[in-house]
Amino acid sequence: DAKTTQPPSMDCAEGRAANLPCNHSTISGNEYVYWYRQIHSQGPQYIIHGLKNNETNEMASLIITEDRKSSTLILPHATLRDTAVYYCIVGFGNEKLTFGTGTRLTIIP
Amino acid sequence: NAGVMQNPRHLVRRRGQEARLRCSPMKGHSHVYWYRQLPEEGLKFMVYLQKENIIDESGMPKERFSAEFPKEGPSILRIQQVVRGDSAAYFCASSGVEFNEKLFFGSGTQLSVL
Prior knowledge:
The complex is a heterodimer. Chain A is globular and about 40 Å long. By secondary structure, chain A is mainly β. Chain A has no helices and nine strands. By secondary structure, chain B is mainly beta. Chain B contains no helices and eleven strands. In chain B, the strands form two sheets. In chain B, strands 2, 4, 5, 6, 9, 10 and 11 form a seven-stranded mixed sheet that branches. Chain B starts with a strand and ends with a strand. Classes of the chains: A mainly beta, B mainly beta. Chain A binds chain B through residues 32, 36, 41-46, 49, 87, 93-102, and chain B through 4, 31, 33, 35, 40-45, 48, 55-56, 58-59, 89, 91, 93, 95, 99-108.
């Protein structure tokens, strides 16, 4: 049973910001939001995670709504190499993270 | 400074044979996780191990599948008497001991059962 809902696919123009939404309306108070991505047939790659504050690292920014029922992953300047499936995951720690079907992001030249 | 190493990259087995998938975690990591991915699906958790201990195997099929992470050497996912439905990509990830340390994934083993 999925804890998150993501659009199945999105397109974004190269050089623009890619904003990937995720709904997690049943998130518990101590659960984190994690984002990973999977580039074609490779192993997933960690992007970022957060609890309730917005987070930023060298790859992306994570914006979590105040009620924590949804979040947005932002890739500030998308490149062709950002084409991948992006997974939004809710959990507490690394144990048994559940990857859904994610959002297939395609960066358009 | 190698990442998570999985081998073989591709494995072909006939029905009824055994498949052994290996995973060497990143240097310094003592937690290993195995995931299975069927075509066009997300990754499904199988098992979580620490050195010489199985911590959580709730995602493992009850029969034919086993996993170990010995004190020395790689983690092994073993599938006995493979069937066509076992055909999938199997990914291993590792992490350190701190809570919420990010997972590092290997490149996976693609198992094909003929």
